[in-house]
Amino acid sequence: MHKSDRIAANLKLVHERIAQAAARARRDASGISVVAVGKTFPADAIRAAYDAGLRHFGENRVQEFEAKREKLRDLDATWHFIGHLQSNKAHRAVRLFDRLDCVDTAAIAKRIDPAAASEGKRIPVLIEVHLGSEATKSGVGESDLPALAEKIVALPHLELQGLMSIPPYSDDPEEARPYFRKLRMLRDELSERIGRPLPVLSMGMSHDFEVAIGEGATEIRIGTALFGERAKGQG
Predict the structure, then answer these.
(1) Is the dihedral of CA 66, 111, 121, 82 positive or negative?
(2) Is 41 helix (H, G, I), strand (E, B) or coil?
């Protein structure tokens, strides 16, 4: 099967799984967006996913996307940065991406704000929340979340849209449910606290997105289920 046909077939299966999960949760599947995660996959794979109907794409590495961007400039897509953003790459990320789904400190928010101003942008952001015990994961802790949110909403060139989190990996998707439920509760509490809607709840990946949908995900990140397995050593 040609790569583009395979990606289109995979997307059809993903949409079927979304529809089934939404029906079980008594939700409208149209309220759930797929962000195709292009990490390590070439520009032609991203173009094939676009041709199959996807419009939201996520990349983990600023430098990797810079190399792809020229080949994809004609696509009317929304580009999400979903990796850990280093301060020295904040301006490049703002220039390249439409959304930054990874803000986890006040320091990085304060680097993004003037970068967005210089690019003439008001850039939508998500706060990444660290809910597991893994020391290697980035994200703001639960207790520090309200203070970070209040700092972000005070910055004129950032638009806080919601929260994202990646739970500890488990072969059993149900193990992620308490983390997804917790993120939804934190989002609801934070929205009430800051007095503004936070419509985006970004959680769930190829192996556990049905559970995430059951707990209220509005945005899921799909890489492997769409593009196939990444090469060994490529994450």
Answers:
(1) positive
(2) coil
What is d(CA 41, CA 229) in angstroms, rounded to the nearest whole number?
A: 10
Q: What is the number of other CB atoms lying within 10 angstroms of the CB of residue 134?
A: 13
Query: Residue 33 is inside which H or E element, if any?
Result: strand 33-37
DSSP secondary structure letter of residue 231: P
Give the fold, CATH level 3, of 3-227.
Answer: TIM Barrel (3.20.20)
Say if residue 120 is exposed, middle or buried (CB neighbours under 10 Å; 0-12, 13-18, 19+).
exposed
- Which of 163, 170, 136, 168 has its CA nearest to residue 148? 163
pLDDT tens across 81-130, in order? 999 999 999 999 999 999 999 999 999 999 999 999 999 999 999 999 99
Q: Where are the domains of the chain?
A: 3-227
Q: Residue type at 70?
A: E
The residues pairing with 164 across neighbouring beta strands, listed in sequence order, are 128, 202
pTM of the model: 0.94
Supply φ then ψ for residue 102, to 5 degrees. -150, 20
